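Here comes just one.
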Amino acid sequence: MEEWLRLVTKDIVVIIDAMALIIVAIGTAEAFLTGLWVAFPALASHNRFREILVRYGRWLVAGLTFQLAADIIGTSIAPSWQEVGQLGAIAVIRTFLNFFLERDLAELEIGARQRSGANSRGQGELRCRRG
């Protein structure tokens, strides 16, 4: 029974690691292509590029989450100190990424609100001057 559990666990870990790899690869390709698309026009905004990086961060966090799940499953069978250390390192990295991603998202949201408020005020001023 224990041997069967070890075999199944190893297969599940490989599958989840493959999922993490696919998620990170897709996110990297999307960030690269979208970044190129935004980088070439002369009027590319800094905020648009930052949005791309934040979206890329989401992909990385998702990939790390899957990798963390695979590591948790893998270390649950036969944990060594090295595996526990790797698990802890991944958890710390994911926590820091999440913290900075959430902070960047909040900053982008505040900036978008300020821009939309300035745009609506500017349009109101235009209407008043025309009228």
